[in-house]
Amino acid sequence: MNWIAIGTIADIPLRGARCVETPQGKIAVFRTAANQVFAIDDHCPHKGGPLSQGIVHGAAVTCPLHNWVISLESGKALGADEGSVRTIPVRVEGERLFIALEALASKAA
Amino acid sequence: MSEKLVIIGNGMAPGRMLEHLLEAAPDRYAVTIFNAEPRVNYDRIMLSPVLSGEKAFEEIVIHGDGWYIKHGITLYKGHRIVAIDREAKTVTSDHGVTESYDRLVIATGSVPFIIPVPGKDLPGVLTYRDLDDVNAMLLAAQSRAKAVVIGGGLLGLEAAAGLKERGMDVTVLHVMPTLMERQLDPAAGYLLQKAVEARGIKVMTKANTKAIVGNGKVEGVELMDGTIIPATLVVMAVGVRPSIALAKDAGLDVNRGIVVDDRMRTSDPAIMALGECAEVGGHVYGLVAPLYEMARVAAAGLANGEDRRFVHSDTPTKLKVTGIDLYSLGDFADGEDREEIILRDASAGIYKRVVLQDNRIIGTVLFGETADGAWFNDLKKKATDISEMRDTLIFGQAFQGGVSSDPLAAVAALANDAEICGCNGVCKGKITGAITGKGLTGLDDVRAHTKASASCGSCTGLVEQLLKLTLGEAYNPAAVQPMCGCTSLGHDDVRRLIKAKGLKTIPAVMQELEWKTSCGCAKCRPALNYYLVCDRPDQYADDYQSRFINERVHANIQKDGTYSVVPRMWGGVTSAGELRAIADVVDKFDIPMVKVTGGQRIDMLGIRKEDLPAVWADLGKAGFVSGHAYAKGLRTVKTCVGTDWCRFGTQDSTGLGIRIEKFMWGSWTPAKVKMAVSGCPRNCAEATCKDVGVVCVDSGYEIHFAGAAGLDIKGTEVLGLVKTEDEALEVIVALVQMYREQARYLERIYKWAKRIGTAEIKKQILDDAGKRKAYYERFVFSQKFAQVDPWSERVSGKDKHEFRPLATVNFAEAAE
Ligand code: SRM
Ligand SMILES: Cc1cc2nc3c(=O)[nH]c(=O)nc-3n(C[C@H](O)[C@H](O)[C@H](O)COP(=O)(O)OP(=O)(O)OC[C@H]3O[C@@H](n4cnc5c(N)ncnc54)[C@H](O)[C@@H]3O)c2cc1C
Ligand code: SF4
Ligand code: FES
Questions:
Q1: Among B106-120, B339-353, B508-522, the least confident range
Q2: N or C of chain B: less Cβ packing under 10 Å?
Q3: How far apart are the C-alpha atoms of A85 and A98, rounded to whole Å?
Q4: Domain A2-101: what homologous superfamily?
Q5: A-chain residues within 8 Å CB-CB of B813?
Q6: By percentage, how much of chain B surpasses pLDDT 90?
């Protein structure tokens, strides 16, 4: 795994998200009310809405464009909608956050 | 690439077809609909309750705008297709839009028949087919004058009952000796006439219209015998004709309707037709049940799924006039080979007749008591031999086989394949199966999942009994609509309990009111946040993570993730300096689009989120503040030029508009609030379709409210006339505060006013000076904490994290 440091947990508001810019596009990093951290592509499976801008509840986010609810754990759309978004591994070490961008590493290498 | 499906007409039949099609083959077609009516798909058969006032138009919408967006369907509202070019495979609308198709569906419905008598074109002569007709009737009804309805069939009687309900003096003219003669035998027709007359509606049978008379507008109807019946409104409800002109011009086979086979295919293999315009097996239909079956068949054909074929069946007729129960089915003419069984109860006004042939039911007429309609229908459909129960048949199902007369038991005794909802062809087993299988708890659930009771509503009682039977004690019909899946409480209870229990934060509300989820959802959190902001403006710390993105970053998110920015232009007035500043910002940040909004100000669209604080900083230097174009809060106050310039202006409408906007900006409200002030009744600022509007007159300020011009169009109601600007401001502020304190989240003023009644609002705001003052003062207090420009706050560093990436990962790092 290729772990890349992206900042600290305090940088993300509780029940909020921040983005990490990468050569593959934006990755949204979420912090839930229970202080879990998840990362997924910032690209809704419906019509590409920026999921980082949605309302975070439980371990899910509601897309700001048309209200699909996406599970942060699985990246899958919940309820009646169907689709999924790539999830990215996150590691929390103390305060510090890392994500793994393996797919890209292999592509670039 | 998906194939192009074009649909002409957006009535009940194609609406239902699309639902089936989207279920079976969601991505197969790119769908485009042209509808001559300028609106979305709605339940046409519920127009009568809208006319009578029992329902609002928004309650009968089947697919709102959001539905089309969600399914990526293009709907051209108000576009009538005028030509089909079968060679080129295109259709063209009266507004000049041409669209090509791979498959075309014609669903143009019917046109009302207009009897060709002199005077038929006079203003005041209407038909009854769509919402525009209803609105025109409602307008005419305001005069409370005389109306004549020509036609004593289903539509005519529903129109008459509605107009009577609205306070008009109504006469029904019917050319035949008894009412609804096509559905009722003379005995039932006579009882119906008595019931209609008992509501104060005059009925004249054997009345043959000779002319409609009037000078420039309707003044009366003249009959063949010379009688003249005075009227200011005439509604012609004498039947409909399938709308086939378009198909005929295109060279398709037509007869009475557009000829289709039992898979809804016309003589051109690329074109289907369905609905009232279609003729299948020699029949044309005028009730939704067979049209819905056509919808199923057409959808199956388009999806290339099952091979479904249309089979003719009789549909029962019911009249949707509250308090008059009638039911008619099948063939009830006398005949040598036929027998009939009749039950009359004169004192109770009941008449029942069952027509038999070879011991099987072929027709039924029920008046006054119709509960057994479904049962008779079932016996008829299955061609059950009734000789065994002949003696008790007419008394109904409850008398068969020792079943008690308890209605619940009667429903329990129905077979699983007995049809409950005639409009949608839903049987008992499907409903009970959905209730248990999907865990449904209420009528709305059943409507959503099975469509039963979702059309004309006459089977609602039966569906409720099925809910009761299946759920037992657990069924609570009076249950309120919960806020969302996280709670069983409704908005009103939550608002009340927040106050009663003195709750101060969202977590406290969720704890005390036993929320079922750990931290709510995107529906309840913004609502709770608003309720708390409104209740405790001084103490509550606004929870930005519970706000929709637009309110969190104070700009409007666009489909590509960029934002738009709309600064306030007080009362729509601007200056060279302001315009120059906007021009500079547009150049500096390379903003792709600048647009004048419908709210008298300027929108800059396509701004990158990262650039927002810098854009605001520059706008702020020129004196601009946020226009809250994104907020559930005060949006715009549109004005006209008023006495300052206009030769007709009666008051300083511009000045008053600016004053109101400066006083009220920044306030959060349950839903957006838009206002306008016009300088005279010419009303150039369109004040009469706003949440709150002022129309200036010589004697003062007429205050309007509860208008709408978005998803629904509704003219305002007049709250009252005040003499001075100060009074106008006080009344408006008090009204808005009352709304802030009482409405449910996302409920516009017009919906709130409808729910609690305009009389109550007038009472509290106009008649009770003490209450008005108190509302006013609470608003003023709350503004102390609300009137902070969110843009300048962010320019000075608030919520920095929103506008910057957490980190930037480059190729080298990623590849390491
Ligand atoms: C910009 C503007 C269109 C324009 O280019 O002129 C506009 C743009 C939007 N309107 Fe509007 N409306 C605009 C005037 C109107 C008007 C006309 C008016 O205000 O005089 C109406 C009808 C009047 C009314 O509200 O009754 C209008 C009725 C709606 C509705 C339907 C609301 C309803 O309850 O019926 C929505 C949907 C909603 O709010 O849920 C809506 C929603 C929207 C949203 C916010 C859609 C969204 O959620 O993203 C659009 C945001 C675009 C953006 O980012 O700027 N817009 N919208 C107008 C901004 C006015 C302003 O200066 O603030
Ligand atoms: C007041 C009223 C009460 C009713 N009550 C009942 C009832 O209780 N039970 C029952 O079963 N039925 C009832 N009906 C009948 C039922 O509403 C109709 O059978 C049904 O709506 C027909 O559906 P449709 O899709 O064929 O046509 P419609 O619903 O009439 O829709 C046709 C649409 O096509 C549009 N259109 C026409 N030509 C063009 C064109 N060239 N280009 C674009 N668009 C075009 C029209 O504007 C219209 O919106 C009632 C009807 C009315 C008016
Ligand atoms: S509303 Fe009256 S005052 Fe205003 S522009 Fe029109 S005519 Fe003039
Ligand atoms: S883009 Fe996310 S719901 Fe549509």
A1: B339-353
A2: N
A3: 19
A4: Rieske [2Fe-2S] iron-sulphur domain (2.102.10.10)
A5: 4
A6: 66
Flag whether residue B333 sits within 8 Å of chain A, measured between CB atoms: no
Instruction: Give domain limits for chain A.
Output: 2-101
**Ligand 3 atom nearest B678 alpha carbon:** 1
B807 touches chain A (CB under 8 A): yes
- Rounded CA-CA distance B196/B153 in Å is 12
Cβ-contact B814, A101 below 8 angstroms: yes
Q: What percent of chain B clears pLDDT 70, i.e. is strictly above it? A: 98
Q: Kindly identify the ligand whose nearest atom is closest to the C-alpha of B695.
A: 3
Nearest of B691, B692, B668, B693 to residue B679 by alpha carbon: B693
**What pLDDT is stored for residue A109 in this prediction?**
35
The complex scores an ipTM of: 0.68
Residue B484 reports pLDDT greater than 60: yes
CA distance A87 to chain B (A): 16
A62 lies within 8 A of chain B by CB? yes
Q: Which helix (H) or strand (E) is A104 found in, with range?
A: helix A102-108
Residue B364 in contact with residue B318, Cβ under 8 Å? no
Please give the pLDDT value at position A70: 96
For residue A82, the model assigns a pLDDT of: 87
Cβ–Cβ < 8 Å for B159, B152: no
* pLDDT computed for residue A2 by the predictor: 79
Q: Please list every protein residue whose CB sits less than 6 Å from any atom of ligand 4.
A: A 44, 46-49, 63, 65-68
Size of interface A-B (CB pairs under 8 A): 107
Residue with tokens 């802030």: B740
The whole-number pLDDT of residue B653 equals 97
Position B478 scores a pLDDT of 63
Question: In the block, which residue shows the tokens 């300048």?
Answer: B792
Cβ partners under 8 Å of residue B161, min gap 6: B48, B52, B196, B199, B201, B321, B322, B324
